[in-house]
Amino acid sequence: MTDNPPTTLTITERALVEVNGIEVIEESERTARPSDLFWPWFAANVSVFGMSYAAFVYGFGISFAQAVVVAVVGVVLSFFLCGVIAIAGKRGSAPTMVLSRAAFGVDGQKVPGVVSWLVSIGWETFLAIMAVLATATVFRELGWADGTATKVIATLVVTALIVLASVAGYHTIMRLQSVLTWVTGAITIVYIAMTLHLVDLSTVTLRESGSTESVIGALVMVMTGFGLGWINIAADWSRYQKRSASGAAIVFWNTLGGALPVVLLVGYGLLLVGSRPDLEEGIANDPIGTLATILPTWFLVPFLLAAVLALVSGAVLGIYSSGLTLLSLGVDIPRPAAAGLDGLILTAGTIWVVFFAESFLAPFQSFLITLGVPLAAWAGILMADIALRRRSYDERALFDVGGRYGAWDWTSVGTMVVASVIGWGLVINLFADAASWNNWQGYLLGPLGLGGREGTWAYANVGVLVALVLGFVVTYAARRATVRRQEAGQARTEDPAVAP
Questions:
Q1: DSSP character at residue 241
Q2: Which of 155, 193, 359, 377 could form a disulfide with 471 if both were Cys (CB 3.0 to 4.6 A apart)?
Q3: Model-level pTM greater than 0.85?
Q4: What are the pLDDT digits (tens) for 383-401?
């Protein structure tokens, strides 16, 4: 139970607009099955944008075989980590950042909460921008207008779709995602069939192998760009799971739904881009639009539909969760209003990039790596907390600074800060010219004998993995007694009939 009064939904509200905010979901509403998690994760990731990542992977100077290993391991592992975080949703039936209070304290959670909100806002804006630019490129290929008017209309339509779906909430989004999965999946299969003749295995296999550092760098980029980019919202979609749901099943369906489409699409992208090196430069500025240039004219409209719907699908998940994160930070407004507020920010960001910014992909990737470090540290801390716990969360204490989780857990906060400082010292800004504001990183590469900012290890960006591992290991060792004490007190006060 929580301090919040239970919410009674009418049939209409249940079908159209979710009124639940960050409060714990009532038992009567926990009707989802683990297999239901497949649909939102698959729909959000069955995007032709995944093929574009082939160009980014090859940018590290590695061979096709190395790139395949990087794609499979990086994607599966990163979505597996999302699945682990999703277990918390079943145990506590609250949003990810509310459940994070068990590890950081009710007020201490605001530290990772701000990072999470920035990551979600960044990702959803990025996906909206991709959709607008893809529309303009396809219109140009069709010989239609591709100027300012086209971009204005595309911006309005794309942002409206994203905001309306996210405002509607969980029930509408789950239905929407199941439909989008089939539509975008089918059109993507047709795209592959129509471009398969361009694949030239002899050209693909000519690429020379890269160094170990390059492989690690590509692996970190793939993990950050896919699963780790979603990890801060993973429990938002499992909070409607039944208490009796299998944790292993939740991990499995979460991992399968997210990783399956990405592995297939990045894998095919490696074949396609490896056969057509001329695609690499265009992908850097307009990933999806560039992939459209190799299509026959008659298929451009279906391709655009699939691309935009897939991007919208991903952005909907992001903005829904960023709204929940905003509420967890103490913003006292209804959940639909929080999603709408984030929608305004998304729209403003999209307009600025599409109409005024000279370059956005490079600064965005720099931003992603920078926030990826503290986000990885937080993920390691929360996964260790999940691994240590044997009981469901004390729901009341998640909302009470005087409860068993306290206001601040300085061990977790300190671990996140230290792991982030170490992690930032082991990554560099790969886009020094386009994002000069971010050239302060990499300060440990020299002192640790890794060649400094110009050395080969600089581009491996191992700081993300170091932050993740440090967060997990330190928390698992340092907070074991704290968690045991919390759960012992919980067992003494709970009704024995309520089993975890």
A1: B
A2: 377
A3: no
A4: 999 999 988 888 888 888 8
Q: C-alpha angle 451/457/463, rounded to 5°?
A: 115
Q: What is the CATH number of the domain that holds 136?
A: 1.10.4160.10
120, amino acid identity: S
- Total residue count of the chain as it appears in this document: 500
466 located within any domain: no
**Is 172:165 a contact under the CB 8 Å cutoff?**
yes
Residues 6+ apart with CB under 8 A from 251: 80, 83, 84, 86, 87
> What is the C-alpha to C-alpha distance for residues 176 and 50, in angstroms, rounded to an integer?
21
pLDDT digits (tens, 9 = 90+) for 340-368: 888 888 888 888 877 776 666 667 767 77
Measure the CA–CA gap between 195 and 295, rounded to whole angstroms.
7
Residues whose CB falls within 8 Å of the CB of residue 488, separated by 6 or more in sequence, listed in order: none
What type of residue sits at position 239?
R
Contact residues for 317 (Cβ-Cβ < 8 A; gap 6+): 40, 44, 173, 230, 233, 237
Residue with tokens 């960006």: 461
Local structure of residue 333 (DSSP, 8 states): S
